[in-house]
Amino acid sequence: MIDLRLKIDDVPIDHPSIVRLRTDTVESEHDAALIDRDHESQIFDLAGYSLRVYCDPRTDLDGDVLLLVPGRNSAHRLLRAGSRHNTFLVTEQCDQLCVMCSQPPKKYHVDLFDQFTVAATLAPENARITISGGEPLLHKRRLFQFLVAAAKARPDISFHVLTNGQFFEPGDVALIDEIGRDRVLWGIPLYAPHAALHDSIVAKPGAFETLSQNFTTLMRAGAAVELRTVVLHQNWDVLPQIADYVSTRLPFIDVWAIMQLENIGYGRMNWAHSFKDTSLDFGKLRSAINLAIGRGIHTLLYNFPLCTVPPQYRHLAPSTISDWKNKFLEECGECTLRSTCGGFFEWYKADQGFGGLSRQ
Ligand code: SF4
């Protein structure tokens, strides 16, 4: 697992600040140049002060963007220049309590959108940044300000916004257009083909109805949508009906991502009655995939280790688990699929997981 927090010595700042670490050239007032390294740290010049970052001196930090918070002896590694998996967690508040939530909500919110805007402008060329929560659109005005500003400052970067889709309004169409329709991929979950089940999974009455209306807004906006459905015991029997719903009501989506459960947060708490072992029973999933693909819906499987998927569907299962929270098991060692397999979440527990793993 890659640690996204780096231990640092105290720095004299009085508000959350963004700094980009550079080992060679300095291009911005936010850049801190490497001045020294020893066996346990790398030391950067931060506007005349020393920023000491504890890590293996061989760790390549060039281009990494850190968030420094006053009084904290650790820095958030917001952007890793060498990674495709960079996420800004913009809030931990949420209006839903989904049974599989990997980041259970918290009551309080600290607005760091100004810092995120600076960080985005310092991102590596052509970066794609995931915006996650909590529910980012609970702070929609600030989120859209951030997206507009970042899009203007950096025409090369794009965003993947993970949202429950509850807070779009018809008036957002113009803003989505201003940000750039192809600049943002909206990742939005749908867990069932009808209100009773979807609302019970997300623990919010009326959520399905609101989502249905807001899909219409997104369609009118020409927004790029990645529809996300986590496979659960709760929705296993209706997966083919979800495929039917997607193909008849939401044919404008870019991709339907069918996802395996992550064993953390509420997902861990509810694992025993929510995890569906698709390595032993692929039946309803097979029907749903066949129906969706047959009707022209681009369908993918996220977070499925390749050997849990029948061979004829493995091309639909890209490696999707972020590099910092990804692992492989001992039995994966000699597997011929290892280079294309996404493996497991760091917190995957083999004794509660897939019963049908088999080295290929
Ligand atoms: S054995 Fe491991 S590397 Fe091979 S397909 Fe299964 S999970 Fe992936």
From TrEMBL:
Q: Which Gene3D superfamilies match?
A: Aldolase class I (3.20.20.70)
- What Gene Ontology molecular function terms does this protein carry? catalytic activity; iron-sulfur cluster binding; metal ion binding
InterPro entries given for it? Aldolase_TIM, Radical_SAM_PqqE_MftC-like, rSAM, rSAM_paired_HxsC, rSAM_sf
Q: Does the keyword Transcription regulation apply?
A: no
Query: What Pfam families does this protein's entry cite?
Result: Radical_SAM (PF04055)
Name any cofactors this protein relies on: [4Fe-4S] cluster
The Radical SAM core domain, residue ranges: 90-245
| CDD domains hit by this protein | Radical_SAM
Which NCBIfam families does the record cross-reference, listed alphabetically? rSAM_pair_HxsC
**Protein name, per record:** His-Xaa-Ser system radical SAM maturase HxsC
